[in-house]
Specification:
Distance between the termini: 37 Å
Largest sheet: 5 strands, antiparallel
Order of helices and strands: EEEEEEE
CATH topology of the largest domain: SH3 type barrels
Number of domains: 2
Radius of gyration: 18 Å
Number of strands: 7
Structural class: mainly beta
Shape: elongated
Strand order of the largest sheet: 6-5-4-3-7
Number of helices: 0
């Protein structure tokens, strides 16, 4: 396997919404061959209070980890990349009795405007700005 040329580009590009790999960034590690050239910044930062997109028994909590990971769509051979977040469940979250934390896809989360354990009313959420 050879490393893609774009990982060793010598001309940096500036874009606040993407991280662009530059020459010398990864001299001592092997990156996946199909790693995208530009990686979008995550929508949610560490410490953000989020919940799963609402359903009757929605869980919520605080983001304590994030990874950019490949996955395959059900009926497609193509590999897609997406941010995944490790969500530490709030003590008042419905599943917290048997689950401490869980990985959640970015598309399945929404930002809360407050910490649910401080306010049991989940009506105060808002969607992240585009």
């Amino acid at each position: 396997m050879s490393n893609p040329d774009y990982l060793y580009s010598s001309s940096p590009r500036r874009n606040p919404d993407f991280v662009v790999w530059q020459s010398g960034d990864f001299k001592d590690i092997s990156l996946p061959v199909r790693l995208p050239q530009a990686i979008p910044n995550p929508l949610y930062s560490l410490g953000s209070c989020c919940r799963w997109i609402p359903n009757p028994h929605t869980d919520w909590g605080t983001i304590i980890g994030q990874i950019y990971s490949p996955y395959r769509l059900e009926h497609s051979p193509e590999v897609q990349w997406s941010w995944l977040y490790l969500l530490l469940l709030d003590p008042d979250s419905p599943s917290q009795q048997w689950l401490l934390a869980d990985w959640v896809e970015e598309e399945q989360l929404e930002l809360l405007a407050f910490s649910p354990s401080e306010n049991s009313d989940l009506e105060g959420f808002h969607e992240p700005s585009p």
